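Re: [ENG-882] Designed sequences occasionally contain unexpected residues at chain ends

Forwarding the minimal case from QA. Structure tokens:
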């Protein structure tokens, strides 16, 4: 596999590895030992070792819709995302975010993207804080579907986020992370700041520049309030930024940064899934241990190998 294809596959494999690795430690479900995280399973959903949670499942819902419709630019593609979300909801998943659950329930049994956007907006109305991390955790496929098309990435990341999370902060986080993944895949660079130029509003741009500054000043352990989009982005980026790149084997940065992300605590599967998508985009699927990759599985009865195949198909 050439380097570019490895990085494309790495977006989804990194997401799934981070998710499955972090699942067992979510909100203190298990203690992190001195030798780092392992694929122990368990967690809030009593997952099997190597089984991904709602983070990768929702990312698959987006990836599958992109595969069906040649990207995420059309309303038909967004309708497919909405249907995938609802089918998963109807399967009675063991772990689903409170906000996502409420929006998908309100969207009805045969939701359209317009219907989900309305349900999402109604959920957010009157709530001071509705920028949960549930859309950021599944934004990685947006970059895969629109590599090298930053304008399309901005539009698609915003549109997918708004299906479940109407708060603009959630969409802005998705835009920044999706653009960072695009750059990592194409240029081999880890840079979450490159997306700031796509915000027209100076206040929005300054807000996120400040949030990134905080993440880089660290330490990562500061970002324990990571169940919301801003805190999750800060936690994931701080873990990546503060984990040194080994001189002898730079690709080991992927697994070491995931260990840093999980050590932060609280929403460990989501923070690690977010971080994993960007780390995989930079270092490739091959940067993650073959044993971990071989253990990956989850809704809807897929393996990690199938995630790779879909990522390549969507990016072609």
């Amino acid at each position: 596999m050439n380097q570019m294809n490895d990085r494309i596959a790495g977006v989804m494999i990194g997401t799934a590895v981070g998710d499955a690795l972090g699942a067992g430690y979510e909100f203190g479900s298990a203690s992190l030992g001195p030798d780092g995280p392992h694929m122990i399973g368990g967690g809030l959903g009593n997952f099997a070792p190597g089984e991904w949670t709602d983070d990768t499942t929702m990312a698959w819902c987006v990836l599958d819709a992109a595969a069906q419709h040649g990207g995420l630019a059309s309303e038909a593609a967004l309708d497919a995302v909405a249907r995938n979300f609802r089918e998963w909801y109807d399967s009675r998943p063991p772990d689903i975010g409170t906000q996502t659950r409420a929006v998908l329930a309100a969207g009805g049994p045969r939701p359209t993207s317009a219907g989900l956007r309305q349900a999402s907006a109604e959920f957010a109305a009157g709530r001071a804080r509705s920028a949960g991390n549930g859309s950021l955790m599944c934004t990685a496929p947006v970059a895969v579907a629109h590599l090298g098309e930053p304008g399309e990435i901005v539009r698609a990341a915003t549109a997918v986020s708004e299906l479940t999370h109407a708060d603009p902060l959630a969409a802005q986080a998705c835009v920044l992370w999706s653009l960072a993944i695009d750059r990592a895949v194409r240029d081999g660079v880890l840079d979450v700041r490159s997306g700031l130029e796509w915000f027209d509003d100076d206040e929005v741009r300054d807000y996120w520049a400040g949030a990134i500054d905080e993440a880089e000043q660290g330490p990562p352990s500061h970002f324990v309030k990571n169940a919301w989009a801003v805190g999750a982005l800060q936690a994931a980026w701080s873990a990546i930024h503060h984990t040194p790149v080994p001189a002898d084997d730079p690709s080991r940065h992927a697994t070491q940064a995931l260990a840093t992300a999980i050590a932060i605590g609280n929403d460990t599967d989501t923070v690690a899934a977010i971080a994993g998508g960007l780390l995989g985009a930079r270092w490739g699927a091959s940067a993650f241990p073959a044993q971990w990759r071989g253990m990956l599985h989850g809704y809807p009865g897929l393996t990690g190998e199938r995630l790779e195949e879909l990522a390549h198909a969507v990016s072609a």
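QA comment: On inspection the terminal residues look reasonable. The radius of gyration is 17 Å. Proposing we downgrade this to a documentation issue.
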